[in-house]
Amino acid sequence: MANATIRDSTLTNPGSTGSTITVTLPTHAAGDIIYICIGNTGNTLWTGNPAGWNRIQQVQVGTTTNGLLGTWFWRLVLSGDSLPLANPVFTLGATVSRMAIARSIQGADTEGPFALGEWTARNYTTGTANPVRPGTITTLAPESLVLHDYLSRAATNAPDPSGYTQDEEIIISGTLVGNGSQKVVADQQTALTNQDASPASGVRWAAGIIAVPSPSYPYYRASSSATTASGTNVTPALPTGSTASDVNGRKDVLIATLEGAGSTTLSMTDSAWNEITGFTNTTSGGGSSVKKFWAYMSGTLNRQCNRTGTGELSAYINTYHNCHQTAPVGAVNNAQVASSTTSTWNALSRTNTKVAMNATCIADALPSFTAPSGWTERMDGLGMTCADQPFNATGSTTSAAFTLSTASPTLVGLIELVGAASVALPVDLVVNNGAHAQTAANAVLTQVHVLAVANAAHAHTAENLTVTTTEVIAPKPANYRRFRADSNLSVWTE
Fold this sequence. Notes:
about 500 residues, mainly beta, 3 domains, 7-stranded antiparallel sheet, 6-stranded antiparallel sheet, elongated
C-alpha cells in the first residue's frame, strides 16, 4: 500500500441554467471514496443532501449577479451497495449556471473519512482577484494524495495549478470555469502554501484543497483519562470509537500510560494488557513511577489500572487504528530529565517502515505541555502528555523536546507503533561472538545494513566486536543458516 489514487473522474456541464444538477458519477468500486465539487453562480446558499451523501463545506462570494458558490460532498462506496450508484441530484435553491467535478478515490484510509484526525488537512475558501489560492494546509502523513479544486467567475480558461496534474476542466466561457487537479506529496509535515492558479479574466473564485491520507499508517483515534488523589486503582473510559473490527476487520490498539506518585508497582487488572518494558522507569529523582501497556481492543477488555499502596494514580488510554495485528509495538526508549521547563527525548532508530512514533512525557508536577514542531499533541493533563507523527521509512527519529509551563522532573521517551502495512527492517547478517580472552578484536565488520549480535562475556581490554556503518538488532532470527565458525566467532546469513 502507498498513496491513494484516482480511479476515475467525470465532469458535469448541463448547459444553459437550472435549479438542480444531476452529477455524473465516475467509475467506482466498493471501498472507494467519491469526492464531488459543485460550482454554481449567484449567492443563494442551498441546503439538503441526497440520501447517502455527506456535505463537507459550502463557501460563497459575491452577489446575486456576480457571485458563485462552491460546495463539496463525499460518499464511501460500501460492500453492500448496489453498483453502480445512482447519479445524485442536488437542488441548488435558485436558477443558476452550474457544473460539477467528481472523482472516485481508491486506496485511501477509509476508517472515519472526514471525521478522524488524519482527514483534517483540508481548506475551502474564496477570493475576489487572481491568483486563485486555497488556504494553506500541512500534510499529516507521508504519501498524501492532494486534491485541488477551483471555480472562477467571468474567466475564459481554467489552467492547472503549478505542479498538479489535471483530472477535469470545465469552461463556460465568461460565466463560470472549474478545474480539478491532483498531486502526491511524499512527506508528512509538508506545508502547501501558494497553491496558485490564474484563470484569464477571472475575478471571484472558490477553491478547495485536501490531503487524502494513505491507508498504510497507524492513526490516532481517541483518548480517555482517569485519576485519583488517594486510591489504589482507576478505570478510564473506553476511548470513543474504539473497535475490535474496523472497516478492514482490524482490532484497534490501546496504549495505557500509568503514573503513580512515589515508589509503587503499577499494573493492569486484565492480563490482555502487555507491559511495554522499555518505558518502565521513574521520573528523574524517583518522584513518580511510570509504566506503559498495550492491548488489542476487545469487547471484554478490562481497563482497570492499579498501584500498590494507597496514593495518587493517574492514567491515560490512547487508541490507534490500522496497527499491526501481531506485533504493534517496535522500538522503545526513555530518558529521565531533571527539573526543567523542557524535556528532551533521545533519538530512536525505527525498525519498521510505515509507523507512527509516539512521544510521551510524564511530570511530577501538573504543568501544561507544548509538543515540538511537527508533532501532533494527543493528550495534555494530569501531568502527562503525548504526541505522534507518522514516518514512511526506517531511520532515526531525531531528538526533540516538550515544553512545560512550569519546571518539573520528567520521564520522556518514544514508542514505535507498527502499522498494518509495515515491513520490518531486513537482517543481512547475524553474529554470535563467543566468550574469549584474546587481546585483539574478535571481528571487524563494515558496511553491514542490519546486524543481529549475540555478544558473550569476555575478558580483555580490546573491543570484543568492532562494527561500523550498521544498524544492530537482536536476537538472532531462527531461520538463519550458519556458514562460518571458528573458535570464537560464528556467522549466519539467510
